[in-house]
Amino acid sequence: MTVQTPLSEFRFDRDSEDTGIDAGFIAVEIQRLMGEGQSQAVREFIESQELADVAAIIEELPENDDLEVMRLLSLHDQAELLGYLRPSSQVAIATCIRRRDLVALMSAMSHDERADLYKQLDAEAQEAILPAFAKAEREDLRRLAAYEEWTVGSVMTSDYATLAPDLTSTQAIEALRSQAIEAETIYYAYIIDAERRLLGVVSLRDLLTARPRQRVSEIMDTEPVWVRADAEQEEAAKLVARYDLLALPVLDNNDRLVGIVTADDAMDVTEEEVTEDFYKGSIVQPIEMSVAEATIATLYKARIFWLVLLVFGNIFSGAGIAYFEDTIAAHLALLFFLPLLIASGGNAGTQSATLMVRALATGDVRPADFGKLLSREAVVALTLGVTMAVAVSTIGVWRGGPEIAWVVALAMISIVLMGALIGMCLPFIFAKFNRDPAAASGPLVTSIADVLGVLIYFTIATQLLGL
User: Fold this and answer.
1) Whether 44 and 90 share a structural domain
2) β-strand 247-251 against 227-228: which pairing, if any?
3) CATH of the domain at 128
4) Which residue of 147, 175, 320, 448 sits 20 to 30 Å from the alpha carbon of 140, by its own alpha carbon?
5) CA 12 to each of CA 9, 19, 44, 58, 453: distance values in angstroms, whole numbers, following the listed order
């Protein structure tokens, strides 16, 4: 007879160590208990867990079972849980429940997450649920959903705390208490006039430490950091990181307060941008879904374009080798060093490109710094090339004699210098033409360095060996 371990004794594995239980295992146990009618045991377990961990378990459950488990939670917890799920899972759940239940669930969600889910639904579903919302929610949903993707407006939330400038600190704290349930955060409150123009911002700490009768207008910061709703979302993330903000006010083109970007939303934006740059750096088109959910066709389309393009680019390397057939035939030892030299140029170029792409992305350097950085990179690359040339020249003497060693050493210096300068220049060129510097990827730099490296190597060999 098999003795079942009570679900309450399971500990979710957050650190991938052997002492924890993974989400898949727990999902199987939950499915078994639900089948046996022990929903109370499942409820007690999921209520004792963090909702982010429950979301990981929900993702492992079969369709319909996930919705059944979700319904064991309160409406507020269901709404928060839905925000942790993958977009595809959110849509799948939204299409499985009645319109009235979906509207109630979305009404309990935070404003920004509600708008995100709304935009993921098809047009027919959007038209079906929109009239069921209250007028204020409907207008808010339309406004948030109208912002273009990748803009600040698409990641901001409209549930923020506001105060009037003539309130005393005591009155302001009472006002924040009444707004706390709906607001995303009350650590910052925004002071606005009758036209919703931003007058200033005050922190909860400032209110708590102020004199009871001191006016908000006397405490507030009248020059807060803000961002435009139509700016790129990356700009908001940079401002939050630079000024260590918990929330960043968002203004429209008429200087009216329309939302805030919270620190956790800024972190999500940063993660998206890093992921996008990572894809571009590996010459992969961005994938809008989870890699685990991506189809073969999606993965094929994401990778084929640049791979085919680089294939034709590398043909020039073969053409260069063919052009110097006589030089190679006279000194076969040259072929031994070809992969080594070409790889060195590509590696040096990739290092330079990585440093410049990151520096441009973080604002550490600007396009105006190009001249200063170019001269510095030339000195660094020349030093690296000489060091590598000394290391490889001893092998050159052993494989082909002093003449081959001299050719290899000079080629190493020239190729490393060339690769490093290409890697440094390409990100600036892309930035100059308003393209993402991350597109100046390692494979692109390597392909260019390969072609030029072949030509440099065999040109030096032809000249020095008297061919």
Assistant:
1) yes
2) parallel
3) 1.25.60.10
4) 175
5) 10, 9, 14, 13, 53
Radius of gyration of the chain (CA): 30
Span 46-60, average pLDDT = 89
DSSP letters of 339-368?
HHHHHHHHHHHHHHHHHHHHHHHHTSS-GG
SS3 of 257, please? strand
Q: What is the pTM of this model?
A: 0.69
Q: Are 83 and 141 part of one and the same domain? A: yes
What is the mean pLDDT of the segment spanning 103-118? 90
Residue 67 has pLDDT above 80, yes or no: yes
CATH of the domain at 166: 3.10.580.10
Place of tokens 């594995």: 13
Q: If you average pLDDT over residues 209-235, what whole number do you get?
A: 93
- Domain count of the fold of the chain: 3
Residues 250 and 309 in one domain: no
**Same domain for 415 and 367:** yes
On the CB side of 68, how many CA atoms lie within 13 Å of its CA?
Answer: 17
SS3 191: strand
In this prediction, residue 17 carries a pLDDT of: 44
Q: Which domain holds residue 433?
A: 296-464
For residue 403, tell me if it sits in a domain: yes
DSSP-based helix, strand, coil % in the chain, nearest 5? 65, 10, 25
- Contact by Cβ (8 Å): 153, 253: no
Q: Say yes or no: 88 and 218 in one domain.
A: no
pLDDT by residue (tens digit) across 272-292? 777 776 666 666 666 766 666
Q: What is the residue-averaged pLDDT of the chain?
A: 84
Torsion (CA) 226, 230, 235, 236 in degrees, nearest 10: 50
Q: Which residues pair with 191 in a beta bridge?
A: 163, 200
Cβ count near 193 (within 10 Å):
12
Q: What is the DSSP letter of 437?
A: G
Higher pLDDT, 236 or 365: 236
182 shares its domain with 138: no
Q: Indicate the pLDDT class of residue 73, thresholds 50, 70 and 90.
A: very high
Has residue 322 been placed in a domain? yes
